[in-house]
Amino acid sequence: MSHVFTDVPGGVTAPKGFRASGVHCGIRKNTEKKDLALIVADCECAAAAVYTTNLVQAAPIAVTRRHLLNGRARAILANSGNANACAADGEENALRVCAAAAKELNIPAEDIIVNSTGVIGQRLPIERIEAAMPELAAALDAGHGGADAAARAIMTTDTVKKEIAVTFELGGVNVTLGAIAKGSGMVRPNMATVLVFFTTDCAVSPGLLNDALSDAVKVSLNRVSVDGDTSTNDMAAILASGMAGNKLIGAKNGDYEIFRAALTHTATRLAKELARDGEGATKLVVCRVSGADDEQTAERLSMSVTSSSLVKAAMFGADANWGREMCAMGYAGARFDPSRVSISFSSGNGEVAVCQNGCGLDFDEDKAKLVLSGKEILIDISIGRGTASAETYGCDLTYDYVRINGEYRS
Amino acid sequence: MSHVFTDVPGGVTAPKGFRASGVHCGIRKNTEKKDLALIVADCECAAAAVYTTNLVQAAPIAVTRRHLLNGRARAILANSGNANACAADGEENALRVCAAAAKELNIPAEDIIVNSTGVIGQRLPIERIEAAMPELAAALDAGHGGADAAARAIMTTDTVKKEIAVTFELGGVNVTLGAIAKGSGMVRPNMATVLVFFTTDCAVSPGLLNDALSDAVKVSLNRVSVDGDTSTNDMAAILASGMAGNKLIGAKNGDYEIFRAALTHTATRLAKELARDGEGATKLVVCRVSGADDEQTAERLSMSVTSSSLVKAAMFGADANWGREMCAMGYAGARFDPSRVSISFSSGNGEVAVCQNGCGLDFDEDKAKLVLSGKEILIDISIGRGTASAETYGCDLTYDYVRINGEYRS
Asked: What is the pTM of this model?
């Protein structure tokens, strides 16, 4: 099934029924950097979220889980600069954030999805958040300005704002899906990732919204690794206002499949953006493993390659040292026959085959260097068995990754 | 049980009955760099080895496995500069290495332990190795010169030669144990590690030698991570000449326990040396997790901390960002209660407690910076449950790691 998803401007306010805002409330020292984001729907929404599998979970995750038990929500509120994880009064402060927003927005506190991102282990400066709430609410905007501010307010070490919106047709009706994301470091999602907030005007039941989100995240955001560290605050959440006017999706029918495909398309593009803007990264590295007996094997082998420090450093140096891919697959914990492996590299600068049937090919080193100097590298590996395949998304390991993480709190 | 293990000079030739040598045969371009090492016993030895668990295994590993089926060997031969993994004629060339050495030494080819280390995927320049064999055999030396040359010949990106020898008493007899090792990159041993070659004059049966080696490696070399990449060529091997004159260890008695303790002591010191000299490393990072219900839990949590890129970069930057330790434990896949975790950092410059019962402590940032600027950092974590503990060994993540691995083949 192939559908047309057309890019539109507007980010999370592109779908009907959403306003957004972002302000600087004083968590971050830099007063130019927004650190508090809000997305609000005009009506109650079907809502769903997936969360980090880290055993250490930030306080707001627990609060959001409870708030989403009924599959309904109205707003998303997130701060950057402080993770509210392993911090004094964590849950109390997450509840205070919700209470302050509820009062200002005149909605139930239980209808708020809350999260935080930033340094672990420091008390959330709740007073500053409470004090900024009137300003944040007053700044709500159904135009692109609000969505832009919200997207910027959740950024941490991200260098690029991550925002997307697409429209597609559902039973003759135009439906829109928007999203913002932040990533950069501590990125090795597992069941959820980083912060990603979706909005849509699609009419869809909460249960199916949850299924579609889980499925989409599994093959997109869960296939990103910047540094192998699964964060304590990962969350992907979605609000569906139903204001597009489509027939409510209440079963896993054709409309559901299209909606799920739109969500997967959007999440996959964000996954690539997150990898491309990984801390210190100079390039996006996509690893496709094909010829597997099943998708899980392909995913595991591919993830091991994109996660390998040695592969990542070689990508930075544009060094076609393919033995590192072979080595990373070898310790991935999945079965394959090394003597049936073929590997090639490609980018906007061309393609070069480096290994066939497990042995090195004579290749032009200058050409390989040129290929690997591209900004988007595909490591294409076939393990020569079945027809299953999987792609995962990573980046190179650079001096800047070390610099950023050697002085993160400074 | 506590024993006295006294350091002695001599490396792998310190035990009675061993000669060693190392030469440059032309695998490495730099003619100053020795690339071929040989250790030979004066008599047939009890012998054992443990190997990498990487599914992709270098050709010499298969050959050595067959040669050690009878628990006997006479010599160890290893080259650096080429891994003979995923390479044309791999096994044939590993056999040719053994044949050439056997002819020169007048011993059976099946009595030779063979391995390689270096770039994966390139054909072993077997002709150069064969041509250098007479020179290598002629250079054999029972004095420290030979051991030193062998230790240097197996180095790859190591910056420091790794060599150790200790003596201890066994039933009134002095027994000696020597070892050389190489590590540096692609280091995340699993069941074996890097290249480590032990020699001893202890009289011990092959089966018990194998058990003692496996046990020692499990709590030492298998607890090292430089970059999380388990190599295709990892091997730890031991030759026991029996020439010390002790009563043959043929059962798991008191003598066996002392011998095993000596091997564990030696392997643990080498593990620390390997971590300290990890590619680009400026410091040794030891993580001790205590208060666990069982050792496996402690080991898993500890290994997750020493393997985390974010922890490693923070150690480089001397940043007491302890949330990263907490986060790394959270995704380790072992159970613990975050609210019972305490964390402190120490080094030669002092100690600083940063987290108690899962929450941050107010600590002096200047003092923490001073502590973490030490050359040997202990991350001391208690999870507040049982009495089991484990230490693992790592290093910091630095600009030089990126530099070395961005241009490894150049």
From this structure: 0.77
DSSP secondary structure letter of residue B70:
T
* Closest chain B residue to the Cα of A399, Cα to Cα: B399
Residue A158: which of A179, A177, A186, A132 has the closest Cα?
Answer: A186
CA A372 vs CA A268, A280, B409: distances in Å:
23, 17, 14
B85: which chain A residues are within 8 Å (Cβ-Cβ)? Answer: 323, 326-327
Report the amino acid identity of residue B376: E
B206-B208-B209 Cα angle (round to 5): 60
Sign of CA dihedral B147, B148, B150, B154: positive
Each residue's pLDDT tens digit, A62-120 = 999 999 999 999 999 999 999 898 888 999 999 999 999 999 999 999 999 999 988 88
A88 CB burial (10 A radius; 0-12, 13-18, 19+):
middle
Tell me the per-residue pLDDT of A254-288, one tens digit each, with 9 for 90 and over.
999 999 998 888 888 888 888 888 888 899 999 99
Is the CB of residue B326 less than 8 Å away from at least one CB of chain A? Answer: yes
ipTM associated with this complex = 0.73
Strands B376-382 and B342-347: what pairing? antiparallel
CA dihedral angle for residue A31, residue A36, residue A42, residue A47, rounded to 10 degrees: 160
Query: How many CB contacts within 8 angstroms connect chain A with chain B?
Result: 216
Instruction: Cite the beta strand spans of A313-387 per DSSP E.
Output: 342-347, 350-356, 359-360, 376-382
Least Cα distance to A209 among A72, A108, A11 occurs for A72
Contact A93, A62 (CB under 8 A): no
Flag if A326 and B407 touch (Cβ within 8 Å): no
